[in-house]
Amino acid sequence: MELLHRLDDPECPETPADYNAADAAASFSRLAVQVGSRFSTPCGIDRDIQDSAQYGRIEVPGEATVCGTRIVALVSKFKPLAMVAADNPGAFLGTDEAQAEGELDANDLEKVEQVLAESGYITIPEELLERSYGGPTLLRFHGSGEPSWWDRFFGSF
């Protein structure tokens, strides 16, 4: 939570003040190649998500995982923030639940988290990101209920 609060600058809701698009693109491209290398397969990518603090999404295809469920890694424009989910964010109440239900292998999760860490990212548990947002940024929230830290650093504005 300390890291989330530290990165939450109300004057810079979509990108940090020191954001460099070229550096973000290069870092994300390297990350996608490295994740794919760990699973011996190309990964699907979606980059530069519009109207969001999320930079991009890397998808490890289910065919390349032990359990047959795709793994999704999201990176925020607010580096070093990243998160990992089985199937899709919100499909499970975090990676622990996905593992308990047999949909996520611990070694597969470790591969993705290792690549993220080696690339300078910090994986924030989805459960933590789902907590109610209590920061100073005025979010243009389009969901139902109260905004969460997920909305602040990965959701759409």
Class per helix and strand makeup:
alpha+beta
- Number of helical runs? 6
Structural domain tally = 1
Please provide the count of β strands. Answer: 5
Features:
alpha+beta; 16% strand; globular
What does this structure look like?
This protein is of the alpha+beta class. The protein has one domain. It has helices at residues 2-7, 21-39, 95-100, 106-118, 126-129, 149-153; strands spanning 44-47, 54-60, 71-76, 81-86, 122-123. Strands 1-2-3-4-5 form a five-stranded mixed sheet, with helices on one face. Strand 3 (71-76) and strand 4 (81-86) form a beta hairpin. The longest helix is centred in the first third of the chain and has 19 residues, at 21-39. It is globular.
Quick recap:
The chain is an alpha+beta fold.
Set down the secondary structure blueprint.
Blueprint: H1 2-7, H2 21-39, E1 44-47, E2 54-60, E3 71-76, E4 81-86, H3 95-100, H4 106-118, E5 122-123, H5 126-129, H6 149-153
Parallel strand pairs: 4-5
Antiparallel strand pairs: 1-2, 2-3, 3-4
Helix pairs in contact: 2-4
